[in-house]
């Protein structure tokens, strides 16, 4: 922070105050600062886990809430406790928020006692107590343009809206998730778009994240009340709780089909935190039981896998991130009965040469691949892809590295890379074959068979290679096994839509919204999020240059947003880091977790050569977290007790692919 202030003093004095502030915020988080980030101070005052943190708008106050049912307001720049008060809650506090435009006087808290309390800090009193929820309140959200309004998300499946001007005793239900997902659904987190306060994002049970238009919902309900026939319904008439177009769903494309496997292993998928980028164009989600995902709200794309019923595949279907009017999209032909590669001659398309510095990065990645350093290879390929986004070879090579590493979601990212490589070079032989293998690994067996058949037709010289024969055997064995179980699955519907009982039954409206869901843009791997359901992930920097997330191993992880490469891991807690809240205008980060302290982090002076909080072996930490995520609950408990678990592979997902021992000419080495 000192260097940033010096730069401002030297370079920005002639500028107007607004320009100086813009300069400071633009450059307040840079790569050198990230690489020097270290512990500045520990704020002590709580006697229980610190579950939530919140900066005020100016960044000169920090509020915290804890299991001790107290909230503390700190002066973080001077490491002082300014105020501590008991909130009146009778259980753990999970959320704390300053009410906008209240002069930092009003603080809102939500807790495990199902209550939402409003506090006046100037008199240290609780001035409003709301008890409308029937289960734990997990998050509070506020909006700059709605100064007297706030929202809450609770495990009763409800999103409630409060207006302090109208009635201090009650709230109204804005969204009832139980009408869509059954009585067992739980809302876990929510946030309001900072640039357009009409949009509210909600995370809940399951892999789907929901984006709502608050204004549309309110207008719909007003029109319903004003309608002359509002109270008259026929037997078949049904009033929709939300108007068409008021909700958009987002999901990592591979997760719905993985749900049965995860459920069988008692692995729960739940969004533990959602937040918008500073410009409001991106949505970041920390998916409990999985990875961190970034969704692009402007350039939306449909999931790349075949999740919809076959009858929904039409010539105008949106697939692979592009809208196709003739059935051909990115070199892939989508028939109503399945999957076909686009026609084309089987000869190589000319490949644009990489500039020398990128060719060196590619060669380094190839060398890492040869040494089975899969993550290092992926990161190097990703670095090159960012600079050369139209090079098919880089995507094809990165796909191979993903397929070798086999972390959760890697085969889906490999499939995406294969499709991108084929769109850039329709005759990319290895990308075609890897695509068939990815479809098989993702349990799309029929599509994998069609893809492999098309590959053989397009590249007949490869039709009897050992890799093709091995994949053919795998697919036929899977089809045979699937036919044996066909009777069990009759009438079950698409796997992403299937419900298991009346209490978690999914409505027709919910099914439609899920079928229309959008896919992610980036995925961030390395952390572990399975033990707590309040774990955060946030943008770091005014331009959202970095992504930060807590982890079950007591560390927090920092990635470059655009390359998704992991750049820094720091030990932030003795057990688990749950909260990470970046300062609004400085390279300054507040974290908390199981320890009863708040930790503050900023770039340390160059004279400080020793930083005991740095996790040097980032790859080792990431691999250990993948093993932790794939361990059964008993193993996780033993890990937390300090026992070493054996019998888990370093890749976190079992042994090598079947084709590894008989690669043939199409699979093994990168290009």
Automatic annotation (TrEMBL):
An example GO CC term for this entry is:
cytoplasm
Q: InterPro entries from the entry? A: DCAF8, TPR-like_helical_dom_sf, TPR_rpt, WD40/YVTN_repeat-like_dom_sf, WD40_repeat_dom_sf, WD40_rpt
**Which residue stretches belong to region Disordered?**
650-671
Q: State the Gene Ontology BP annotations.
A: negative regulation of fatty acid biosynthetic process
**What organism is the protein native to?**
Chloropsis cyanopogon
Leader sequence segment = none
Keyword annotations for this protein, in alphabetical order, are: Repeat, WD repeat
Provide the residue intervals of the WD repeats.
43-75, 86-129, 540-569, 570-611
* PROSITE patterns (UniProt xref): WD_REPEATS_2, WD_REPEATS_REGION
The beginning of the lineage is: Eukaryota, Metazoa, Chordata, Craniata, Vertebrata
According to UniProt, the name of this protein is WDTC1 protein
């Amino acid at each position: 922070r000192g260097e940033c202030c010096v730069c401002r003093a030297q370079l920005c004095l002639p500028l107007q105050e607004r320009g100086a502030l813009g300069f400071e915020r633009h450059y307040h988080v840079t790569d050198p600062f990230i690489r020097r980030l270290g512990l500045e101070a520990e704020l002590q005052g709580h006697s229980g886990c610190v579950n939530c943190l919140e900066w005020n708008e100016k960044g000169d106050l920090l509020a915290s809430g804890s299991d001790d049912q107290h909230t503390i307001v700190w002066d973080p720049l001077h490491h002082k406790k300014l105020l501590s008060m008991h909130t009146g809650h009778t259980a753990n506090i999970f959320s704390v928020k300053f009410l906008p435009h209240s002069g930092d006087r009003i603080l809102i808290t939500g807790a495990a006692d199902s209550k939402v309390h409003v506090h006046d800090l100037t008199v240290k009193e609780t001035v409003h107590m709301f008890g409308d929820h029937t289960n734990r309140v997990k998050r509070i959200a506020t909006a700059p343009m709605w100064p007297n309004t706030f929202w809450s998300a609770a495990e009763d499946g409800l999103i409630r809206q409060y207006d302090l001007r109208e009635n201090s005793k009650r709230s109204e239900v804005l969204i009832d998730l139980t009408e869509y997902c059954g009585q067992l659904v739980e809302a876990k987190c929510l946030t309001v778009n900072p640039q357009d306060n009409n949009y509210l994002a909600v995370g809940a049970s399951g892999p789907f994240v929901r984006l709502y238009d608050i204004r549309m919902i309110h207008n719909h309900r007003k029109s319903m009340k004003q309608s002359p026939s509002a109270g008259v319904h026929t037997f078949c008439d049904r009033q929709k709780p939300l108007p068409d177009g008021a909700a958009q769903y987002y999901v990592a494309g591979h997760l719905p089909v993985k749900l049965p496997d995860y459920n069988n292993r008692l692995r729960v998928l739940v969004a533990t935190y959602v937040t918008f980028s500073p410009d409001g164009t991106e949505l970041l989600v920390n998916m409990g039981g999985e990875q961190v995902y970034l969704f692009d709200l402007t350039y939306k794309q449909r999931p790349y896998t075949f999740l919809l019923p076959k009858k929904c595949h039409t010539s105008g279907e949106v697939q692979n991130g592009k809208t196709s009017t003739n059935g051909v999209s990115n070199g892939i032909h989508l028939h109503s009965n399945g999957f076909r590669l686009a026609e084309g001659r089987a000869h190589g398309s000319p490949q644009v040469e990489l500039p020398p510095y990128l060719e060196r990065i590619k060669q380094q990645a190839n060398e890492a691949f040869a040494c089975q350093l899969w993550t290092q290879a992926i990161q190097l390929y990703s670095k090159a892809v960012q600079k050369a986004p139209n090079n098919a070879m880089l995507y094809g090579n990165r796909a191979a590295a993903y397929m070798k590493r086999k972390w959760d979601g890697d085969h889906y990212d490999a499939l995406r890379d294969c499709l991108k490589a084929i769109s850039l070079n329709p005759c990319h032989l290895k990308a075609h074959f890897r695509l068939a293998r990815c479809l098989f690994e993702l349990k799309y067996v029929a599509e994998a068979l069609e893809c492999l058949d098309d590959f053989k037709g397009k590249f007949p010289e490869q039709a009897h290679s050992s890799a093709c024969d091995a994949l053919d055997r795998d697919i036929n064995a899977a089809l045979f096994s699937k036919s044996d179980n066909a009777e069990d699955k009759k009438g079950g519907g698409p796997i992403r839509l299937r419900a298991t009982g009346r209490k978690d039954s999914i409505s027709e409206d919910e099914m439609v919204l899920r079928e229309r869901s959008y896919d992610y843009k980036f995925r961030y791997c390395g952390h572990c999020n399975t033990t707590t359901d309040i774990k955060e992930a946030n943008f770091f920097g005014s331009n959202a240059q970095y992504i930060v997330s807590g982890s079950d191993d007591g560390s927090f992880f920092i990635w470059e947003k655009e390359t998704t490469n992991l750049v820094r891991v720091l030990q932030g807690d003795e057990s688990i880091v749950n909260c990470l809240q970046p300062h609004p205008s400085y390279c300054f980060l507040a974290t908390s977790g199981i320890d009863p302290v708040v930790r503050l982090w900023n770039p340390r002076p160059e004279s400080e050569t020793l930083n005991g909080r740095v996790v040097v072996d980032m790859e080792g930490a990431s691999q250990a977290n993948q093993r932790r995520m794939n361990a059964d609950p008993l193993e996780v408990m033993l890990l937390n007790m300090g026992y070493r678990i054996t019998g888990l592979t370093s890749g976190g997902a079992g042994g090598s692919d079947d084709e590894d021992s008989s690669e043939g000419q199409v699979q093994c080495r990168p290009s």
